[in-house]
Backbone:
């Protein structure tokens, strides 16, 4: 949506509109609604920099590594599911539903009971109802099982809990593709082409933030996804 900027000249107020954002992008900060996912995302500014440029620099720094064993992995190793890490009184799942859905209705201040999702993993519009909660799930863009194999097995539980509840690593998505994605990395699972730029930017940003390694195949695929920006 555009934002209105008021500029006062003597007694006259001149209003100008500045376009903010672009269709198809999901905020990498994790703030605000996700907006439309169906259009091709663009994260370049006029100089060809911006999010894509940052992502390419971060990708170049990521360490290539072979995945370790899944031995010892369980979801419990990443702390209680959907912990209220920001202490706002609402669990992380409801925070993400509230952020990513539109026309949100809640029971009390936290529990999302309905809303509409512009699904980034299918490009379809999904009507969410709590009675059919599994139709909309919360995906870890950098999967927890993969993170375990790429270094998180050596972390403290506190750091793993931070990753599991990090808003920048979470998206409300359709249940079926989320289950198909599971713990796969970018070389084994890709979202629709229109969302690949944003997906790659988010995946890389999380890997960089938490100093997670990536496989050589994932590194190559992430570069290819950034070519769609």
Residues:
């Amino acid at each position: 949506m555009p934002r209105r900027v008021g500029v006062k000249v003597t007694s006259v107020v001149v209003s100008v509109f500045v376009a903010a954002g672009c269709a198809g992008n999901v905020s990498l900060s994790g703030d605000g609604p996700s907006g439309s996912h169906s259009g091709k995302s663009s994260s370049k500014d006029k100089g060809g920099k911006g999010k894509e440029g940052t992502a390419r620099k971060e990708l170049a720094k990521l360490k290539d590594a072979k995945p370790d064993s899944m031995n010892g992995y369980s979801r419990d190793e990443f702390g209680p599911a959907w912990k209220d890490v920001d202490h706002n009184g609402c669990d992380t799942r409801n925070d993400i539903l509230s952020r990513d859905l539109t026309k949100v209705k809640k029971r009390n201040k936290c529990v999302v009971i309905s809303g509409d999702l512009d699904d980034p993993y299918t490009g379809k519009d999904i009507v969410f109802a709590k009675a059919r909660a599994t139709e909309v799930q919360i995906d870890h863009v950098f999967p927890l099982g993969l993170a375990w194999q790429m270094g998180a097995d050596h972390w403290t539980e506190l750091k793993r809990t931070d990753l599991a509840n990090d808003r920048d690593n979470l998206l409300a998505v359709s249940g079926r593709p989320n289950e198909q994605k599971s713990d796969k990395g970018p070389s084994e699972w890709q979202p629709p082409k229109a969302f690949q730029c944003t997906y790659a930017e988010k995946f890389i940003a999380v890997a960089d933030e938490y100093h997670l390694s990536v496989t050589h195949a994932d590194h190559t695929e992430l570069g290819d996804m950034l070519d769609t920006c």
Q: What stands out?
A: The chain is about 30% helix and 20% strand. The chain has a mean pLDDT of 84.
